[in-house]
């Protein structure tokens, strides 16, 4: 079968080439080049191979680049990485970002910041943790826009002590929604029926931060979320500021790249980030996502069917998926 997709006349279903469903009789097969063409002909998507889902492939060379960055004591230069995989620097820069979601430089920053966090959590001084992570000086930790700690390293080491976080709580179609933000972006979105529960969970997450409720200050952000949940606005791609390992960040950035209305399985998401055997690790990264909606882990569903579990209740997940399918 040369076409990427085919439909079965007797069932009214179209599949990807290679679908593991029982092979149809050749006389009942109608080939198609795209899912859109099959739908236009009146066929519906197979629930087993999910032909409408985007499943990006990743080049093995990019996996080699990621491994080289993770193993290096200092971030490799673009020239060194291009020599490793025999690609031009410009093509490597462009292709790696398209496949992985971030540039080689940004990926190296994630790896380095993850090492910094680990050192700080293990009781290292800021200076020692910085050098061990690959920074050339402790002052680099405090400079530039690339640091993803969401607070100064000394604050991170002290559990967020004196960090400034503002938050708002607003009613929505899915219940009460808490949105919390640092000066760099949104650090938490939580959903529950009880506002007191939302505030307790926020204080547990940031026990030593200076938390201030300022509904007016976050009104523009919360209105985008509320309108989206009411079916009156598009999905809000807002800036986020989260503490994450390099692997978690890869998963969360890939989640944010899934088009609203589409879903992937854990296995498909693992393949999309270049770690096809890491489906369980991907599931853990989704389960620990602190930002509902904006990091849309609700777009991940089990390969066996159904909507699967959801940190903020499966009923809400079902409503979100329906909202995005019909929006």
Domain count: 4
CATH topology of the largest domain: Arc Repressor Mutant, subunit A
Number of helices: 13
Mean of pLDDT: 81
User: Which term fits the overall shape?
Assistant: flat
Model regions low in confidence, pLDDT < 50 over at least 5 residues:
141-150
**Oligomeric state:** single chain
Spatial strand order of the main sheet: 3-1-2-4
Structure description:
The chain is flat. It folds into 4 domains: 5-45, DNA Methylphosphotriester Repair Domain, CATH 3.40.10.10; 60-147, Homeodomain-like (Arc Repressor Mutant, subunit A); 164-229, Double Stranded RNA Binding Domain (2-Layer Sandwich); 246-326, Winged helix-like DNA-binding domain superfamily/Winged helix DNA-binding domain (Arc Repressor Mutant, subunit A, Orthogonal Bundle), CATH 1.10.10. The two termini are 35 Å apart. Helix content is 40%, strand content 13%. It has 13 helices and 8 strands. Mean pLDDT is 81; it is low at 141-150. Strand 1 (5-8) and strand 2 form a beta hairpin. The protein is of the alpha/beta class and 327 residues long. The strands form 2 sheets. A 4-stranded mixed beta sheet has the order 3-1-2-4. The protein has a 4-stranded mixed beta sheet with strand order 7-6-5-8, sandwiched between helices.
